[in-house]
């Protein structure tokens, strides 16, 4: 049994609306450019394909896409966009589920490898990617760099978004290499959240929905070792999808490992 948390029906139904800013052509364009380039004339397999935010537009560019997704509720939303005959999806976990055929590209984006909460499962995810790749094929992972330098001495929490409609912060277990993301999202649903506090600057009409998710963070060098265990070699690592150099100050990376021909 995978340690990944299962996305509920309610979460799946509101996922696309909450991710609208990250789903625009401008936001997705650089990622899709690289994925289509790496797939070439071959097929792509997306681990944790979700509602098809990436898989569907990649398919529209002419790349045959298949998917693996743990949550049947996410797949149900995806099916409103595209049929099984055009984008087949197997319900299962990305560390062990096998789909037919070979692929020139396996990709896992939006920090989703961190949903696997043990190192062993993350290693198996790399092995599963290698299992699906044709010789010369690539495995692409997008993952944030743990922002541990932003933690004040003696503290275990760091904010990652403070805006009018959303407050997000992570709490860290440095020994277990785990974090919990906490989200307070403004909502117009009168049955969700608490009314604004009776304080200066408070909005009495504001209501917020609280959500949490668990993640296991991993450093780039740790991922490289996982790749080596799976028989993959690091080909490139950039600080974003535009190809910016990866540096010690980069908040995330897009890494490409290759199965030797």
TrEMBL record:
Keywords: Methyltransferase, Transferase
Basic and acidic residues composition bias: residue spans: 7-21
Residues in Methyltransferase domain copies: 45-137
Domain of life: Bacteria
Methyltransferase among keywords: yes
InterPro entries: Methyltransf_25, SAM-dependent_MTases_sf
Segments of skewed composition (Acidic residues): 190-202
Keyword Methyltransferase: yes
Pfam families: Methyltransf_25
Alphabetical list of SUPFAM superfamilies matching this protein: S-adenosyl-L-methionine-dependent methyltransferases
Single Gene Ontology BP annotation: methylation
Region (Disordered): 1-22, 186-209, 242-261
Name this polypeptide is given: Class I SAM-dependent methyltransferase
Species in which this protein is naturally found: Streptomyces tardus
